[in-house]
Design brief:
Elements lengths: L1 H12 L12 E15 L5 E10 L12 E4 L2 E8 L3 E6 L1 H6 L10 E6 L18 E11 L2 E7 L13 E4 L2 E4 L2 E3 L4 E6 L1 H4 L12 E6 L1 H42 L2
Antiparallel strand pairs: 1-2, 1-6, 2-5, 3-4, 3-6, 4-5, 7-8, 7-13, 8-12, 9-10, 9-13, 11-12
Helix pairs in contact: 1-4
């Protein structure tokens, strides 16, 4: 059973596009996050929608219309850009699942361009598909490092394991501890990382975007599928066994004088 799960995860790993690595390239500044009412839709009609504009520099290198850029770990599509800023359309589902809805002009955001195939991955496979937000409930220094504790929805704990991967506001991090009773997990930021991302500047009570490790999701899915198959096989075996036992009972009854 273990080997089947490993094989299923390996097969899925080959299909995962390496969109991002969780290694933040720069910290951008929000120019605006506002609803626009003159967005042209596929059929020529006009609709309303939110547009996020961010001032940046590194992520403009090689930028093009339709480029994928992660903003606080959220994969967004570049719809307009110039030499100083880039704009993205933000879908309603993105607003529901991420902390982008609360962004204001001047807020800092983590940014990363989509990785090129064949590049080194110094983080982990990050899709830019945020599962939900978590709440920072504690910040504690230990030497030059910073402990952060984040409370999440209990349903997310299945995919959070000590020493496993997690992306927080698009930053690839290692889970240190998982507390199921309090529905929270911890991670630690070394000095270098503290100076390159926005997480240390957030306060207790602030929300952070959480993307669970996609490999963990595939493993859980493989286990669920395998469990369903095992249950079906057990049910079939039990039915056949009952039929055999019933036949034996009849033969024994017929053999009695």
């Amino acid at each position: 059973r273990h080997s089947q799960v490993i094989a299923a995860v390996a097969a899925n790993r080959a299909r995962v596009p390496k969109m991002f690595t969780g290694i933040v390239e720069e910290v951008g500044a929000v120019v605006s996050m506002a609803e626009e009412d003159a967005l042209t839709l596929w059929d020529g009609s006009v609709g309303k929608g939110f547009v996020l504009t961010v001032a940046c520099s590194v992520c403009l290198d090689g930028c093009y219309l339709g480029a994928s850029i992660a903003v606080n770990g959220t994969c967004l599509t570049a719809t307009k850009f110039d030499d100083e800023r880039v704009s993205f359309g933000v879908a309603p589902e993105t607003l529901r699942k991420t902390n982008l809805v609360s962004l204001k002009p001047g807020d800092k955001v983590n940014m990363e361009r989509a990785a090129k195939m064949g590049d080194r991955n110094s983080g982990h496979y990050v899709q830019g598909h945020v599962d939900n937000t978590g709440e920072i409930i504690d910040k504690t220094r230990e030497g030059e490092s910073l402990w952060i504790t984040v409370r999440v929805d209990p349903s997310m704990l299945l995919y959070l394991v000590p020493k496993g991967f997690v992306a927080v506001d698009g930053t690839s991090l290692t889970v240190c501890e998982v507390d199921h009773a309090e529905s929270c997990f911890t991670f630690m930021l070394v000095q270098f990382t503290q100076t390159k991302v926005i997480i240390p500047h957030k306060a207790v009570g602030d929300r952070v975007n959480i993307e669970l490790d996609v490999m963990g999701k595939f493993a859980a899915q493989a286990m669920n599928n395998l469990g369903d198959r095992v249950t079906a096989i057990e049910s079939s075996i039990n039915s056949k066994l009952e039929a055999i036992l019933a036949r034996v009972d009849k033969l024994e009854a017929a053999a009695k004088p």
